[in-house]
Write a structure and sequence with these properties.
homodimer, Molybdenum Cofactor Biosythetic Enzyme, Chain A, Alpha-Beta Plaits, Maf protein, 6-stranded mixed beta sheet, 15 helices, 17 strands, 26% strand
């Protein structure tokens, strides 16, 4: 087996779902960036036997086991003790560290609770890893042929310790690194996962470096290319022609790569033109505005939104003609277009997105799942009627994402 | 060992850190709500041997193993096959399901890629779990004394399948035939977990059937009462007096029980008075309106919202006086009160919630994390300034929840 790393997050709060395990994804992406194989992750609660068992099981498979959490001063912080038990060594007081701990508290003008000295107890033979952001040091400890690392669970402490101490050690342990792994995500929207799979089927078969994989989430299909080579540049060279072929075949379905978001792509397109943005929403009830305002720095471009949930607000605030509603129904393309025009005028924006629809459970004048979206730019207006399956929340969420992608396509001149 | 559940998330994208494992925290919190022991979670990539090994290792310890992900139609979807191998049974084509799959695609006027038929292959003896939100069915399969469940990795498909099929089965399995377990969640907002703990401290010590536990997530503290008895009615009888005591001590901090949501509680309070509702949002950008319109049937009460992200929209559409902004700054209690009054007038609503704040990363006229919320009802107006830690998304999310709870308290006359 080639060199591999496993990750164990320690903490009952993770099992109870009180916090999300972002350390696992953060460390996973760091390991992937470095081309290090990482096949398994585990979560265990604050229980000595189970932490010990998890360390031993991971150590039997992997060359390195990284633990996060359980390094604090309270009774349920058991990671140090579990490492000692797993490696069959004693816990010893590190007197130098005890002195530094006391100094840390004195500097802050507070008396140290004696229980905090627990943080200076370390498995015999362990090397402490400095923690500039907190009091709990990390640890490195040999357990047979496996190397254990322990880092704090608090992300602000974990991140610098991992980058400064753990990552350089991992590169050394991996033995000069005769393989680097590089991944590229190509993000698409507008086709099913199986259709994207069929479009790229022969590449999936013929290319084993890079390998291809498909990831689906929230209507988006991501194509992942993963290459291994002796250097990152060589891996990029392997990826480049396949990426070009994938992009060529998928065309305007591709909206970005790697960490790009559709919101950021939209703002980049708007800023090039100097256009401002607003929304007029009925069935989505503010969801499009909420997503667009989640982006830091959006206030140079996003101006506002009118959530016109009731018909008389569509007429009164967005200037939709009562006759248009009477003639076509409130869920109709003419109404969506008038909503977009009304939003552009009322909010003073260059670009407006408007939604009217029947999200259920009670039908409007059109069947449930009928959602009409309009995009108005200074260059023209586009309108589209969608017929969506699923319940209210799914229809609203899909419509929101769909509206953002239609906006993107309109700004790219691809509608 | 008592009854326990383990969770395995399947997906290379999780190991590579491309997505965060929110399914783990969601399922963890569902299990905690139900009082089911859950000691370990694992993540494995899309590799048959490793998925099989993870299923067997978890099955050797736990009574139930829940898997998520790997149920799609593409080649890297291996969960069905891994379950068959782990349980030593064959994969068989479910012809009924194959017919339904074809019908699903036909209804949508699209041709089904043949590869999708893979989703109709199931381990022999498996019971399919219906997936109303997608095409991949879930599975239930016996592996010796352990029961395996597989659910989709897409949260919108996982959530209803888990609640509709997996959770009822878990309650049956946990009861073991001769005991029924009933849990009651009492949902509170506005106090820390430690304060709720102090208020209920003696009950925690004195009551062992039902037992009490505290669960914290997203600012909400849940008190869980779990009783065991020979019948559900007998368990309910054990819970009733303790629940009454808990509710009495916690007073208006309690907003609901079990699956109640703050949104539903608000609509129930509004309908009693016959009052309509709208919002005026700056820093939350439509998030409050989006949450309020997520509730089916809200259109009898919710009328609309004005997202006034820019100052001139606050003045032009909400009628905030320029002098008020000049005197107090745009993030101020007088501005929030004028926004609420303006929304009530512009939207024609009885009750309005307004938000102005500084969510970061760039400060407005007040420090980042300063969020002002106003609630206006026909009986009076209330305004509150919050000083919140954390980044933009955390500040916006907490403010949204906080606004809903202040609205609830105002409607209950408890502000």
């Amino acid at each position: 087996m080639s060199f591999s790393v496993e990750f164990i997050a320690v903490g009952t709060e993770l099992l109870l779902g009180q916090i999300v395990n972002t350390n696992a994804s953060w460390i996973g992406s760091r390991l992937a960036d470095a081309g290090l194989a990482h096949y398994r992750q585990a979560v265990v609660g604050d229980n000595l036997d189970r932490v010990v068992e998890a360390i031993r099981a991971a150590g039997a498979r992997a060359d390195v086991v990284i633990l996060s959490g359980g390094l604090g001063p309270t009774r349920d912080d058991l990671t140090r003790e579990a490492m000692a038990v797993a490696a069959s060594v004693e816990l010893q007081r590190d007197e130098d560290y005890a002195v530094r701990l006391r100094a840390y508290w004195e500097q802050r003008g507070r008396e140290m609770p004696e229980s905090n000295l627990k943080q200076a107890d370390q498995p015999a033979g362990a090397i402490p890893l400095e923690n500039p952001k907190g009091t709990a040091p990390g640890l490195r400890l040999d357990m047979g042929d496996t190397v254990l690392f322990a880092v704090p669970g608090v992300p602000a402490e974990l991140h610098p310790m991992f980058d400064n101490y753990v990552m350089p050690a991992l590169r050394d342990l991996a033995g000069g690194g005769d393989a680097v792994m590089v991944s590229r995500l190509i993000r698409t929207w507008g086709e099913s996962e199986s259709m994207v799979g069929e479009i790229l089927d022969d590449l999936f078969d013929s290319s084993d470096n890079p390998t291809l994989a498909f990831l689906a989430s929230a209507g988006e299909i991501k194509v992942r290319l993963t290459a291994r080579a002796t250097t990152a540049a060589a891996a990029e060279d392997l990826i480049a022609p396949i990426e070009a072929e994938v992009r060529n075949r998928l065309g305007s379905r591709v909206f970005g790569s790697d960490g790009d978001t559709i919101e950021e792509v939209i703002y980049a397109l708007l800023r090039v033109r100097g256009w401002s943005l607003g929304t007029a929403e009925s069935a989505t009830g503010g969801m499009i505005a909420a997503r667009l305002t989640a982006v830091p720095g959006c206030s140079d471009t996003f101006r506002g939104s009118i959530v016109a949930y009731q018909e008389d607000i569509k007429v009164g605030m967005l200037g939709v003609a009562a006759a248009t509603i009477a003639d076509h129904g409130v869920v109709s393309e003419p109404v969506a277009l008038e909503m977009a025009a009304g939003a552009a005028s009322a909010l003073g924006v260059d670009v407006a997105v408007a939604i009217t629809g029947s999200a259920g459970p009670d039908p409007q004048d059109k069947p449930i799942g009928t959602m009409v979206l309009a995009v108005r730019t200074p260059e023209g207006s586009h309108v589209r009627t969608l017929h969506l399956p699923g319940d209210r929340e799914r229809v609203r969420t899909y419509t929101t994402t769909s509206a953002l992608h239609h906006l993107r396509l309109a700004l790219q001149g691809a509608l």
